[in-house]
User: Fold this.
Amino acid sequence: MNIMFFLFSLASTLFRTPISTLSRSCLSSQHYFRLFSMAAKNPHHHLEENGGATTVMAADILNRHNSSSCKKRKLFDIDVRSEFSHHDPAVARINNGSFGSCPSSVIEAQQRYQLRFLEQPDDFYFNHLKPSILRSREAIKTLINADHVDEISIVDNATTAAAIVLQQVKWSFFESKFNPGDTAVMLHYAYGAVKKSVEAYVTRAGGQVIEVKMPFPVASNHEIITAFRNALEVGKSNNRKVRLAIIDHITSMPSVVIPVKELVKMCREEGVDRIFVDAAHAIGSIRVDVKEIGADFYTSNLHKWLFCPPSIAFLHCRTPELSNLHHPVVSHEYGNGLAIESSWIGTRDYSAQLVVPEALEFVNRFEGGIDGIMKWNHQKVIEMADMLAKSWGTNLGTPPDMCSSMAMVGLPACLEIMSDSDGLKLRSHLREFFKVEVPIYYRQPKVGEVNPVTGYARISHQIYNIVDDYYRLRDAINNLVNSGFTCKVFHD
Assistant:
């Protein structure tokens, strides 16, 4: 019998796990020998396997073999594979940044809220909905170090939060508080939907938009700070005033952690009226302290990196009593403050907004809680990014300290990624033929560059990921390179 098959069979019996699942983890035969020998020598030895995605205690191997009634023990009191068993096991899912992930225990809590509403909607609406939303707002307040729960409004996503803030800016132009030609400054790499919102609310109202031409790859915070300062100077030229600054905390594509505290401080010194931080990727990925940051408005999604189901975000307003913000959907609560307006925008499924305490309970089952998870994900994404860059002979798009739980890794120049369309089609190709899900960013080459790296893979790391996910991407790209593949095939 093949030794590897024998080991997978034995492991399948002891772990009560299908051989197909075990084989996906790509553990070597030497690895299994080491695992079993350690279990025999020290039944209480802790082992973390596959990049931390599944935690196994050696005692469990022996106990399960000796007693079928034995209850499984788990490091951090959690079995990660079980919590994310609804993920498609055939796909290397290294794109947590786009849609996030929700564990089974939080999904079950959400379903309980959904059923309670369907069982008796009137009772749920009158007696349970608002107190439950308040409970989530209180949890968010503590998480981001806000002063008061009144500063926290729960909305569907960061795009909705942007619309709320930009709608107010629009009315400031219409009511002649701002002058035609006054400016808004935002990063060139602002999220596409936010750029569209700026067009819809600010440009149409008479404002002008100055985009910060941020470099990429980027070597330091100094480059970003300098570019932002230059944009503010342009925004103030010709006797105009900068009325709004939109600052990403973590840009989406390319993914870069932005020095928000420094930029907010600069805006204050330059007299910018309103500062909005779009931190869609922040909560659960990097530390957030809204008092330290000091922006007027700060938003982040909870379904990306904090294990909530889609869709939930918060909007923090530093001075809610002065902001005069309103939800774009006008319902019965209009005029009662944004937090209350947002808590009822008509009959809909509010369950995703109610499970924040359950999501925090989930992360607190890990050693170090959310801080421990953030540290782990950052460490692993840098490790995997370095591995990929070394294999492909390329580079990372930023230094490690400008990465969160996502990293940009240069793709081989010979793939000839020459447009955003090429990047999207290559992403689809990887999904269809290699079962790898990863976004691809196109970087326009500079004049005179020789053999430039024009494509970057944005890899994410979340606790369910295993090292084999990144090996799959590595091998897929190497397979394409070795076969002579280029993106020109998409134009034929």
Observations:
- The chain is about 45% helix and 15% strand.
